[in-house]
Input
Amino acid sequence: ILNVEQSPQSLHVQEGDSTNFTCSFPSSNFYALHWYRWETAKSPKALFVMTLNGDEKKKGRISATLNTKEGYSYLYIKGSQPEDSATYLCAPGGSQGNLIFGKGTKLSVKP
Amino acid sequence: NAGVTQTPKFQVLKTGQSMTLQCAQDMNHNSMYWYRQDPGMGLRLIYYSASEGTTDKGEVPNGYNVSRLNKREFSLRLESAAPSQTSVYFCASFRGSLSYEQYFGPGTRLTVT
Output
């Protein structure tokens, strides 16, 4: 079973701060790396799916990078807003889409 | 498009009772998954079905059975509920191509007393 580590566990920032989180995973048997955003009392929603070493994806103020050789991915949020407050989950996926989730990074953005 | 739907939304069971959680998707996805979410543990995969007619164990399959009824529906059964199965259960579906994401249902909150 893969060991997926996310850091930090939680993060408190002020509105306007930029921030980043780390996801590390064993680099063998890698097929895809997923990032999800999970708001309280809702279900997880996909942010990015990356498959290739060196992949970079961007959606508005949020971006992610992937290094499959060393087994890590970074998620960046530029100019955090209160609505960015959520738990951010990463999950490497197997060949059948079976994901192993990290425990997440809980972000709180104060106005 | 309703996406992924789950029933029921909430359920309270007594220890030893059985029940089936239902999941359906209308996106014509090949693969479906059941996860449980516990405080401090994140999402853990219980069982999955990569395609109609197949099912496989995930990280935490003990105490559960699944049925892929057809391409749309994937059910999770607790034969004899235990307090350790108190959790929020999420169903997800996936198109089957590696560059695509999983879509999650709204969850079922189950309490076993």
